[in-house]
Amino acid sequence: MTENKAHKFDKVIVVMPAFNAESTLKKTYDEIPKECVDEIILVDDFSSDQTVAMANKLGLTVICHLKNRGYGASQKSCYDSALKKEASAVIMIHPDYQYDSRIIPHVLGFLSSGICDVIIGSRIRTRREALKGGMPLYKYISNRFLTVFENLILGQNLGDFHSGFRAYTRKVLDTIPFQNNSDDFVFDTEFLAQAVFFGFKIGDVPIPSRYFEEASSINFRRSLKYGIQTLFVMGKFIIQKIGLAKFKIFSSNLNRKLE
Ligand SMILES: Nc1nc2c(ncn2[C@@H]2O[C@H](COP(=O)(O)OP(=O)(O)O)[C@@H](O)[C@H]2O)c(=O)[nH]1
Ligand SMILES: [Mg+2]
Q1: Domain 12-258: which topology?
Q2: Ligand 1, pocket residues at CB < 6 Å
Q3: Which atom in ligand 1 lies closest to the alpha carbon of residue 46?
Q4: How far apart are CA 233 and CA 238, in angstroms?
Q5: Is this model's pTM higher than 0.85 or not?
Q6: Could you give the 3-state DSSP secondary structure of residue 186?
Q7: Which residues in the chain land under pLDDT 50?
């Protein structure tokens, strides 16, 4: 499937943590450049709609959670499955048709050339563009504050720490003990803190994004909880760095190496 590639990966797997994505899944799938992707895995987190039927219809590899286990737990299932299937690069994309997956070949180029180990799709190229794209003002403001703070603590210069488009080389997923992370949304923050902790190079590329009713399910309360948990992760990072305590999210991934 992957001929004339602009990258050196043997197997590129796209993973989608899905929850009630029936109405947006096909559009998301249609936009993915199939010529540079070998397999698409969808993890269904016990959706109450027809997400699984739609995924089967599209020919995706489908993994079903038998109860709602959370967004972080879904990503754990995504990455476990991609690693078992010998992925050499993994792209995580929300199936809510919010992220423009035309950037996939470019992202693979950055990973493949060794310029970066992790790439984040940044929804915030400019304030005007983000708000015009429909990002709710409160999400924009909280994202900016959190992102500035996270950059400061982690020594990065990223545009959007909270994006639903992320790409990694296999080595990143082999190294980071993501099984120790939260099963909730803060999984994403923990993962980036871990990527920094383990010395991976993180970069971002602008990703055109769309906001519409179905593309945004997290309400204000969940966002607030996520924001507070993000601050706690930054605290853990500092405490671990200066050696005051050790946290399991920053432990070495012995299990994976022994497998
Ligand atoms: N696996 C899983 N995903 C969920 C759950 N609740 C929400 N999501 C997903 O979390 C993703 C991020 O939420 P969203 O509101 O789109 O965030 P935003 O786009 O950053 O405003 C969405 O794609 C949802 O489908 C859940 O219980 N389990
Ligand atoms: Mg969304």
Answers
A1: Spore Coat Polysaccharide Biosynthesis Protein SpsA; Chain A (3.90.550)
A2: 17, 19, 21, 45, 68, 70-71, 74, 94, 96, 98, 139, 164, 215-218
A3: 28
A4: 9
A5: yes
A6: coil
A7: 2, 258-259
